[in-house]
Amino acid sequence: MPDTAVDVRRRIRGLLVELSGSDRFVDAVPDEVSLREAGVSSTALVNLLVAMEDAFGFEWDDDVRPEVLRSIGSLADHVAQRR
Questions:
Q1: Helix axes 42-56, 5-20, angle to 10 degrees
Q2: What is the tens place of the pLDDT at every residue in 5-62?
Q3: Where residue 1 falls among pLDDT bands split at 50, 70, 90?
Q4: Which pLDDT belongs to residue 10?
Q5: Would you list the domain boundaries of the chain?
């Protein structure tokens, strides 16, 4: 059964906790808030994208639209659509 966007959001949040070492920050970020505005650095975003490739078994396309990378919600929607 394919993952729903809600399941994917949960898994992305788990990856963010693993990468940051704290759930305090991750719990405070709503799904639709810009990760950049929430304080996620470019390096941290790249690390998240790599972790997502491993966790979800896909590779990001070189031409992925920037708005896909904006928030936890947009990342989850993109992954759920691919599955």
A1: 130
A2: 889 999 999 999 999 888 888 889 999 999 999 999 999 999 999 999 999 999 999 9
A3: very low
A4: 94
A5: 5-82
Q: Which residues contact 48 (CB under 8 A, 6 or more apart)?
A: 12, 15, 16, 19, 40, 75
pLDDT at 2: 54
Q: Which DSSP state fits 59? A: -
Return d(Cα 56, Cα 9) in angstroms, integer.
12
**Assigned CATH topology for domain 5-82:** 1.10.1200
The residues, any chain, with a CB within 8 Å of residue 31's CB and separated by 6 or more, are: 9, 71, 72, 73, 76
d(CA 23, CA 13): 8
**68 near 78, Cβ under 8 Å?**
yes
